[in-house]
Amino acid sequence: MELYIEPIKINRNPVTGRFLKGSIPHNKGRKMNEYIYADKIERIKSIGIKNLSPRLDIGGWNAKEVVAIRDGRFAVFKSSEEAGRTLGITARNIRQCCDKKRKSAGGFLWFWEKDNVWASLINK
Prior knowledge:
The protein is of the alpha+beta class. It has a domain of 56 residues: Arc Repressor Mutant, subunit A (Orthogonal Bundle), CATH 1.10.10. 25% of the residues lie in helices and 11% in strands. The chain is built from three helices and three strands; from the N terminus they run αββααβ. It has a three-stranded antiparallel beta sheet. Strand 1 and strand 2 form a beta hairpin. Helix 2 crosses helix 3. The longest helix has 15 residues. The radius of gyration is 31 Å and the shape is elongated.
């Protein structure tokens, strides 16, 4: 009678801990409902769907209106982001102009709408 010891198959690299090429994962071919209950699956799915839907209530809640002036003519925008998208100017540069850290952005003079400094620069 011979003694036979089966060889131990190593699935992971003992140094790095990475899986070796050709090793079969423990969950191959199994479905999620074999691991957790159906109500938990539904809860996870509803959370995922909620995360994918756009949150329309959070965008622009602290937006300030800005005014662009060039050649005595002006335009009012709801926010620096909207002005930047419309005119192709970086919104940060627009805000820096409004805060008096820059002189102009995109060839326009920029002011916060609530500051009435810009009213004297418009041709009547």
